Amino acid sequence: MPDVVSIGVPVFRGKKFVAETLQSIRSQIYRELDVLISVDGGDSASADACESVLTDSRFRMVVHDHRMGWAQNISWLMRNCRGSFWYYHQQDDTVAEDYVQSLLDYAYAHPAAAVVYSDMQAFGDISVALMQQPVFGPPALREIVLLSGHHPAVAFRGLTRREALQQAGGIRENEVESFSADTTWMASVARAGELHRLPRTLYRKRYHAANVHTRWASWPLERRKLGWQVHCRDMFLEAAQAEATTI
Question: Mean per-residue pLDDT for 222-246?
Answer without folding.
Answer: 79
